[in-house]
Amino acid sequence: MRDIFKIVHAIKQGDDEAAMDLAGDLLNLYNRLIYALINGIFSKDESK
User: Fold this and answer.
1) Residue 33 burial (10 A CB sphere; 0-12, 13-18, 19+)
2) Domain residues of the chain, as ranges?
3) pLDDT band at 8 (very low <50, low <70, confident <90, very high)
């Protein structure tokens, strides 16, 4: 949640490049989290 506030603050300051960098970092974090969750679910199914 704090990352979203950092992005909004960067946009308000007019620093679009920093906002895009922060948004990209946040997107990568969520992608890794979802990937790890999906792999965890399917790896449990295969062991049955």
Assistant:
1) exposed
2) 2-46
3) very high
